[in-house]
Write a sequence for this structure.
């Protein structure tokens, strides 16, 4: 991989080159194309993946996506969950309702990232945009007027600006030399989509705490549930029996949640990191390329989409001559990422306190949750409305 360096200016193939066609990259591309900006998207995959880690679109995200005309489709294809609870087995510690929030979307929309990407890609295509696949970035060469991207097929693309929306292992961030500060969680994570029967609701997202670790159980459309759990060492592809054992040890006890079928599963390790800067000259970062964190709270994809929409506005201003707008983008969005990383980290560490502190933790959470203002504040944070 070649570092960022200076080359002679040339003609431009596009105004903005976006590396990565996940939710962040597709949102940014759709917003730019809708605004009349010449935009090119490349992605290393031959086609979009059919499975995904993200499964939540929050109220604020649905609000800001309205100008792109994708919100109605997302709502129609998703499942509205109006309640989020933190539990210790059957005991509700923290109940959080979204139904009284001042928004047109007073719920958490449960929808697969794969579906979200399909909806965004369809809209991008309708507007005349497209994704070049498979294209792998091998190097970036920057000069005062623009950036040249060298691709795996030996070709080059010349752009006024390049955006890295290429995930945690971002090639763009590496080429730009931007540090990715933070650390890693010691545990691994299991992720599975399953069909369940028994003691889990179909309209509520639940974060279960237990001495063995946390497990999130969230409803999805078509009668499925998303299960996410922390474990010391997960198998590469957890089977139905493994997921069942996690639910038996951490989920509802009074009425067992039974795995009827495993749709798909995977394991992964997570980090809590934020890029030291969102900009290096004409190279910018958004989404997981700029920040990663625990899935607790379901914020990752949402923060990336909000990054994309803010960056679209900043790039349009920069192309019109206001280069300071790009620094303002990073100054506004990086503190949001830090807050989200902090919230997710606190939830994750609360879920995995030593067994001897479990009783005290439960008492404190249940006591604090009695105050309506606390529950309301959590609802505003989780829904993203706090960032209006």
């Amino acid at each position: 991989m070649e570092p960022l360096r200076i080359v002679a200016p040339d003609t431009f193939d596009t105004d903005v080159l976006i590396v990565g066609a996940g939710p962040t990259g597709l949102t940014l591309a759709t917003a730019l194309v809708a605004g009349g900006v010449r935009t090119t998207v490349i992605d290393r995959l031959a086609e979009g993946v059919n499975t995904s880690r993200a499964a939540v679109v929050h109220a604020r995200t649905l609000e800001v996506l309205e100008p792109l005309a994708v919100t109605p489709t997302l709502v129609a294809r998703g499942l509205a969950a109006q309640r989020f609870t933190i539990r210790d087995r059957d005991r509700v510690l923290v109940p959080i309702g979204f139904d009284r929030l001042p928004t047109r979307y007073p719920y958490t929309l449960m929808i697969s990232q794969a579906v979200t990407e399909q909806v965004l890609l369809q809209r991008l295509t309708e507007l005349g945009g497209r994704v070049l696949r498979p294209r792998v970035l091998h190097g970036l060469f920057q000069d005062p007027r623009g950036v040249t991207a060298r691709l795996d097929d030996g070709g080059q693309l010349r752009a006024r600006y390049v955006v890295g929306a290429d995930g945690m292992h971002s090639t763009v961030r590496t080429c730009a030399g931007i540090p990715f500060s933070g650390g890693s969680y010691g545990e691994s994570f299991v992720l599975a989509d399953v069909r369940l029967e028994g003691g889990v609701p179909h309209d509520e997202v639940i974060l279960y705490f237990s001495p063995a670790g946390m497990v999130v159980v969230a409803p999805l459309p078509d009668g499925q549930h998303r299960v996410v759990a922390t474990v010391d060492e997960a198998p590469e592809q957890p089977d139905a029996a493994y997921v069942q054992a996690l639910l038996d040890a951490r989920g509802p006890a009074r009425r067992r949640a039974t795995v009827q079928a495993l749709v798909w599963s995977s394991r992964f390790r997570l980090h809590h990191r934020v890029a030291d800067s969102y900009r290096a000259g004409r190279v910018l970062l958004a989404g997981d390329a700029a920040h990663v964190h625990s899935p607790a709270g379901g914020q990752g994809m949402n923060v990336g989409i909000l990054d994309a929409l803010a960056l679209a506005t900043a790039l349009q201003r920069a192309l019109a001559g206001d280069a300071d707008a790009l620094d303002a983008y990073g100054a506004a969005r990086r503190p949001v990422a830090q807050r989200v990383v902090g919230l997710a980290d606190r939830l994750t560490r609360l879920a995995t306190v030593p067994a001897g502190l479990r009783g005290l933790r439960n008492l404190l959470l249940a006591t604090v949750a009695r105050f309506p203002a606390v529950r309301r504040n959590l609802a505003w944070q989780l829904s993203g409305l706090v960032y209006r």
Summary: The chain has two domains: 2-55+112-179+276-350, 185-270+352-387. Residues 324-351 form the longest helix (28 residues). The longest strand covers residues 180-198. The domain at 2-55+112-179+276-350 is CATH 3.50.50.60 (FAD/NAD(P)-binding domain).
